[in-house]
Write a structure and sequence with these properties.
The protein is an alpha/beta fold. The protein is built from 15 helices and 13 strands. The longest helix is centred in the middle third of the chain and has 22 residues. It is globular.
Amino acid sequence: MAQHSSVYDEGYDSLDVSTRAAMAYVQQHRPRSEPARLAELAPKIPPEVARTLIVADTACDLPQAWLDQHSVSILPRSVRVEGREFLETRANTNVVKLLDHFARGGEAPSQSLPLAAAAMRNEMHQWLGVNTDSVLLLCLSARRSRMYVNALAATQSLVLIHNKVRRLAGNRAPLTAWVIDSANALGGVGVLLSHAVRLRESGMMPANIAVTLNTFRNSVHTLVAPHDMAFVARSARSIEHRPIAGWKVSLATLLDFKPILHFNADRVAAIARVRGQLRAVEDVLTRLMHVVEAGALATPFIALSYAGKLEDIESLQSYKVLRAWCNRHQIAMSLTMMSATGVLMLGPRALAASFASQQFRGE
């Protein structure tokens, strides 16, 4: 795993820059070509809507093919393991290495960190097309990650720089940006992303998309079946600030008890306990099936991610039944390998299932 320490070191001293410095920045960092999907959409919806760039990071737990198809740009994260660092993308290669690391007994402290504001700004700049007018950046829960704080600085810097250059070029339409705290993690962010894409493609203005997402996020749920209680205990201590007593972790491990965790509206709670990882996974899939059968989804999209080989899930009868039902009722369901962020939070062989419902109560 290669070293990439420079990408998260702060390298931007001031948000406000002179027009000359803004011009130099834009000329130095020439943007990549505009996503093809937005160009395809342009004739179908108002140009100002087609010019909206939607951004998240690798912890959204959606497949790269889906992200490419819907022109969602993804920020990498910096993952540190045993003193080494790598940039995580949605390619899954480094996640496989991380899972192998833990399979070999590796237990060194590990971290998943968002890019610093300067690096985040530089990445987003390269995705701006010549006609891009708006940026929507969806972040992991601000309570669980510094991504939100860094994103605020990054987008403010991006807007300041580009608006100086746009005015100089005679473009009086300002670049605007919204940073949205998803109040979610993993596939919960992915469900919000899918809803944002649907709203953009329906013709909704970016400001209205941001307002809608700030309400919709409270209807997003993630059910988790973790395998290794040591990872859950570490996350409870370092992320949730709700430590679990060591004897409880030892007892649960000894008896092979697995909690079913429910994430919603920036809260997490154990809603059930079952014995054995397979039963825990089946429990999550069964609860999800009940929501789908009841017609209780708020949007026709489900995001599943697994910290292991996907065939372990695809071979389960409960998964096959769920996928068949979704296919019949035109509900999109993605299954992808969990991000490194998710693996570090929940451990190998954890399953996360995210969906939106106003009726689900986690009982």
